[in-house]
Design brief:
2 copies of one chain form a homodimer. With about 475 residues, chain A is of the alpha/beta class. Chain A has 3 domains: about 130 residues, NAD(P)-binding Rossmann-like Domain (Rossmann fold), CATH 3.40.50.720; about 140 residues, 3-Layer(aba) Sandwich (Rossmann fold); about 180 residues, Succinyl-CoA synthetase domains (Rossmann fold, 3-Layer(aba) Sandwich). Helices cover about 45% and strands about 15% of the residues of chain A. In chain A, the strands form 4 sheets. Chain A has a 7-stranded mixed beta sheet with strand order 8-7-10-9-11-12-13, with helices on both faces. Chain A has a 6-stranded parallel beta sheet with strand order 3-2-1-4-5-6, sandwiched between helices. In chain A, helix 4 links the parallel strand 5 and strand 6. In chain A, helix 13 packs parallel to helix 18. The longest helix of chain A has 22 residues. The C terminus of chain A is likely disordered.
Chain lengths: ~475, ~475
């Protein structure tokens, strides 16, 4: 599987210099603006060289060995090219062309033909009807249509979230979201019709990939239920999934898109519970929630302390926390007294009302009092960004969360644009609504409980000590913390 | 009540030139940058003139009659000033000071004292612990802390959404959201502890206010359940409410904020159903949903047609529509044939897959085919904004929706920033997620059904004709469409 993401040499079959040729956009990216180090060839009728990628009329004309073929031709000639690849000894194929099982009987027959050829030669196929792979580490990307601007925005920085996305359209939305968030992608794969490689293969690969900390999925169907469940149960990393086809109408719509079988959603839901997969409720949760896993230690209990300088959010978050199955932490008289001694707090019981004008020093004291109290498992801070000092306090809070091994889901009740710009500039994990912040605490706890149950681990007294030693938040999850 | 929003003369009691004086921010706004035409006075110990507002040492020293007093002094001197206002003949008082029933026994006693004085003089009181009123029509605003920048952003343009918001912090969030949306505020009121004027008084006033088309509320409690229900049942305009205190913990948190009684949430929910009030699920719905009422005709049936050029959104929206109790419209063979004849569509059954590159002409044909088919009650378009032509097509769609009397909830699957900027520049009602768009259709239909049931009206055949005559979407609701 690793060859798909790290090929030394690639051939783009169907790339030519004709106007509107989709394959040429892949050659342009690999040949011109992506700093990918491998060799890239093009195959087309006229043996044209495309954006510096040496052209050949047939796969077998390429003199050197080739690791990976990307096929983007009309569907009817795809089987022939797959055969040429087999003869050439290429064992990894991405088929981006559409018009297969998603497009009726004739397409389904062609897809079967490809399956047979690939089995005969021992090849692995990704697609058809997909975008293939993107690897932010080596800057290899075979998505057709990718622009220089996309590269500058999405591919320059490498992160630790890897995606399995059945639809190309959703890839674009996820990529755009990275523009302004603290998390970035490690690897992305769009698997389309899943003629061979499916979601089960991918989660197995990502689980073993040292660059991946969190696995996110957008699925329109599951190819082999049992294979998926078996693979998912072995995964040690947090997995989030958004699945289309929860209703009959959704299934029908998805079938004309990526041609999967209908899956019973209740069975899928039960599989998710067994394998500790978090079902998310929207595409936006696929990019908003992972930062809770990458930037915060896990939530290991239900008791949440809220503090805010906008009194309304005390009530709003209390409702949301209870509705999410969490609890408002009960602060002891001793802890309340310590808070009162700071001299600047309006209301020292939880939710703590900070009042309008808190100093940096008081913020720091509150963090220590709450995190060291033994009465609180996580924080839900809702401070207005009314002064640059507040964002500095938040940056200190993030450090203290790691120090104490307890998470904070931070929401700043300002215009979204302001929050996003602060998050981007200061690289702090800010959520964009109180609902999102509570949801982040909830999924963190859900993941923790799953690992605890699965590995029969108990909360070890050393968790805070380990956190202080700089053990990564992901490891906390993997080890059941 | 109208005097609160349209006073000819106002006195700000407690405004002085001392540093950090909150009252002075109100004088600064009214005296300097708000183009409010009324006379403004200040009352303070030294009789100082504040930002051009003539100063007096006592209310009775003001030589002319005064319509409205705004009190922003320490709580303990408020009762005395209320009495001075009574003697001066002022009958409308906004008390912004906090420290009353939300702050314990002593505060509660003072609040009772104020109640008695105001009853004796026949005065109406707004607050205490509130921000008072903002009227975008005459540019009167007595919110303390308002800045020139706020005025430029929020108050310059006048819209048709009026708000009743129990918390000052939420006022700020709602105001900030208007920066980039097609809807704007008409009037905003922050009613705080509701010693006298409460939500029931306000909805009654807004219902009769010709500038208000939609009424939105953020409430932490209901003062008099029966009074509220009776008032709400008479209202003809769409009402949306976000209520805190759905859980015991939320109630407790809200009590320390604006001091209301606990209300049973199930009773409140039943009251909302009886009075046709839409309960929203987040603060953001309070500003994202109203545009469905102001910019689109009502949804008068469940049958929704989806069209998109990102195949994934066919399945995503089908799931969401069904989960919201709506239906995927079934297109007849005739309608599908008409769609096929446009020659550019990938999939002509609902959800309609537009394919990657549609012309303006085809967009217009699709709108007409669907809206005139008799098989569709509303549209859920999900077009990518890949070309400026698409936004022009959307602008045409908005016109056609009014022409045919059927709504569209439009979601453009791009980066939120791009969507928001298009919405702002072209003034089209774009939603920011598929969930938000489906929710908008759902609340539109909910409101329609309520009006239909309540007024025992049937869908009249003249609805499309009336829409073509330029009857406003709000009137469609008011008249049961």
């Amino acid at each position: 599987m690793d060859t798909f993401f790290n090929p030394s040499s690639v051939v783009v079959i169907g790339a030519s210099n004709s106007p509107f040729n989709l394959g040429s956009t892949i050659c342009r990216a690999l040949g011109e603006f992506l700093p990918f180090k491998g060799k890239v060839y093009a195959v087309n009728r006229k043996a044209e060289t495309v954006y510096g990628c040496q052209g050949y009329a047939a796969v077998n004309d390429i003199p050197d060995p080739v690791d990976l073929a990307v096929i983007i031709t009309p569907a009817k000639v795809v089987p022939g090219f797959v055969k040429q690849c087999g003869e050439k000894g290429i064992r990894r194929i991405v088929i981006e062309s559409s018009g297969f099982s998603e497009g009726g009987e004739q397409g389904t027959a062609m897809q079967h033909e490809i399956d047979e050829i690939s089995r005969a030669y021992g090849m692995r196929i990704m697609g058809p009807n997909c975008l293939g792979v993107m690897n932010t580490e080596n800057k290899f990307c075979c998505f057709y249509g990718i622009q220089k601007e996309d590269f500058d925005t999405f591919l320059q920085e490498s992160g630790s979230i890897s995606y399995i996305i059945q639809s190309g359209g959703i890839v674009v939305i996820v990529l755009e979201s990275f523009r302004t968030d603290v998390v970035k992608a490690a690897k992305i794969v769009s698997i389309g019709n899943k003629s061979d490689i499916d979601e089960a293969d991918m989660i197995e690969y990502y689980d073993g990939d040292p660059k991946t900390d969190v696995i996110c999925m957008y699925l329109e169907n599951i190819k082999h239920g049992r294979k998926f469940l078996d693979a998912a149960k072995k995964v040690k990393k947090p997995m989030l999934v958004f699945k289309v086809g929860r209703t009959t109408e959704g299934v029908r719509a998805a079938q004309s898109h990526t041609a999967g079988m209908a899956n019973n959603d209740l069975i899928f839901d039960s599989a998710c519970k067994q394998a500790g997969i978090i079902r998310v409720r929207s595409i936006s949760e696929l990019h908003s929630l992972p930062k809770m896993f990458t930037h915060m230690p896990p939530l290991t209990g239900k008791r949440i302390a809220v503090f805010t300088n906008s009194g309304a959010f005390g009530g709003i978050t209390a409702d949301l926390l209870i509705e999410a199955g969490l609890e408002m932490a009960k602060l002891s008289p001793e802890t309340q007294e310590k808070l009162a001694k700071t001299g600047q707090i309006f209301n020292v019981s939880n939710p703590i009302d900070l009042g309008p004008a808190l100093s940096m020093q008081t913020f720091l004291e509150i963090f220590d009092i709450l995190l060291s109290s033994g009465e609180v498992d996580g924080l839900l801070p809702v401070p207005s960004l009314w002064h640059p000092m507040v964002i500095e306090a938040i940056m200190e809070l993030v450090k203290k969360c790691h120090q104490y091994g307890k998470p904070a889901a931070i929401y700043t009740p300002n215009a979204a644009a302001k929050t996003i710009s602060y998050r981007d500039t200061h690289q702090v994990p800010l959520f964009e609504s109180p609902e999102e912040a509570v949801r982040a605490l909830s999924v963190s706890y859900q993941q923790y409980l799953y690992r605890l149950r699965k590995e029969d681990l108990r909360v070890r007294p050393s968790v805070e000590a380990r956190a202080r030693q700089g053990v990564s938040p992901y490891q906390d999850y993997a080890e059941g913390a």
